[in-house]
Amino acid sequence: MTDFSSLLAPDRGQPARTIHVVHPDRFEEWLIAQPARTRTAVAANKVVGKPGNRAILPGDAPDDWAMLLVCNEDVTSPWRIASLGDGLPEGTYRLAEGEPGAAMLGWCLAQHRFTRYRSAPDAQGPRVLLTGEPGRIEEIVRLAEATALVRDLVDTGASDLGPADLEAQVELLAKAHGATTRVTRGDALAVEYPMIHVVGQAASKERAPRLIELEWGDPAHPRIALVGKGVCFDSGGLDVKTSGGMRLMKKDMGGAAHMIALAGLVMGAKLKVRLHLLVPAVENAIAGNAFRPGDVLRSRAGLTVENTNTDAEGRLILADALTRAVEDRPELIVDFATLTGAARVALGPDLPPLFANDEELAADFLAAGTAAHDPLWRLPLWDGYDDMLKSDVADMVNAPDGGFAGAVTAALFLRRFVPKDIAWAHVDTFAWRPAPRPGRPKGGAALGLAAAWGVLRKRYG
């Protein structure tokens, strides 16, 4: 992974190129105050003060130059100067005015590349940004590492990232922080977590389903549970997806990637919690023993589920994992999952829906998302749609007919497995960016990670 700690440094007055970040509303005022050579360079580059305009500005010496960026991003945005992070030559830089603050994150992430499958990775050296707030560097680096971990895991092809590989990733995390792990698979999984088992039973022996758990922290501290959907590839099962629908299904473990990264942030910051990470890891494959539409499944909680769609498998494995989390009576449960296409239809790729059974928790998530420029949008756990989950033969169905309110009914299904007295938040993340933006390449994306981290840091920091 990128060495993010090498991309930020304390400002001790060392030589550095200057970056001028000018808001469009202040551009004319700024330009008037500049020397003639600067105004000439601005004119030659056809910079007129529109967001995204940029120019190289000459300095006093022949080899001296500075950078101009016209930017209308708020000073609190992580992405304010991200467009420069991978566009400037290697070297050391400082802002002409003010501190980079949150923009250090975008600066770092703009220099991250997923190179696992590249035969000739980019060999350009680092661009180092100076800051007068060295105490923030460690915090920014940790968040950059967590974000990059989500991206890298999601971008990895399913042939290289199966349930066993997710297990190895959790084991690596546990070793780094002195945590303990427990993995349930095979016959024990079939007995203890029957819905995780049945969803993954058609996969090959090497990609057998499992529940991966990690625990860390002082048992006397408040217990929190992080649950992430780990479908390493989703064919749709017997309700098979189209080739287009299957194209990105390597990312169906995006919820697990987010929760593994968030667990790393929690442990790295030594939050005063008893952490319980749960990753139900499966491949939804097609074989003679694949589960079928019409099968009635027994859950760990004892509730029975009529399977109406084998492509609505994520909520099944999450239900067993949530039941396990509840058994230890945490005060907070957070789950992330690439759960429904309906969420994308409703809110698009950039805005994950948030569901919560607790008003204070919901408010905290929305506020943290706004503060971190990692927005969420709350959708309702609408009781009026609960009847859509009725089954003629079992306690409930996993996917109602008709497709109405698909993200809501999926969340309502999960709610059946969480008691009302445990605060619970569910984020239906896309974990993917279909088009690049500064600091955020096309591909795997951490959507909701910074928001969730802000909530936990505020509550337990």
UniProtKB/TrEMBL annotation:
Keywords of this entry: Aminopeptidase, Hydrolase, Manganese, Protease
Limits of the Cytosol aminopeptidase domain: 309-316
GO MF term set: aminopeptidase activity
Source organism superkingdom: Bacteria
InterPro entries hit by this protein: Leucine_aapep/pepB, Macro_dom-like, Peptidase_M17_C, Peptidase_M17_N_1
Segments traversing the membrane: none
UniProt cross-references to PROSITE patterns, sorted A to Z: CYTOSOL_AP
Family: Belongs to the peptidase M17 family.
PANTHER family assigned to the protein according to its UniProt record, in alphabetical order: LEUCINE AMINOPEPTIDASE-RELATED, PEPTIDASE B
Protein name (record): Leucyl aminopeptidase family protein
Organism this protein belongs to: Sphingomonas olei
